[in-house]
What does this fold into?
Amino acid sequence: MLALVASSACASGWVDLSPTPPAGYANLGPAEGEACATYLLALPWHQFFAFGAGDRLLRAREAAIASVPDATGLVDVTLQERWAYWLLFSRRCALVRGDAIR
It folds into this structure.
């Protein structure tokens, strides 16, 4: 049982952070959004209980789009991640930056 738990993992689906923009889009300027996940019983090599991890990148992308009025998408996207560990608890945040478009 211990070997099964130690070898299990979690994963999320693919998130396209910068799909092909429509022809003739308008660049609205820089956008930035962040979303975090919390892990309980987290060790550097394994996380047992994840909260908010499955859609973290999608939420960060949506937050970046929402940060600029009238924006409908992003181009020139970059992704930065931060990890913080406290004993058996950790937090992983994704920061999405790009140019907002309409």
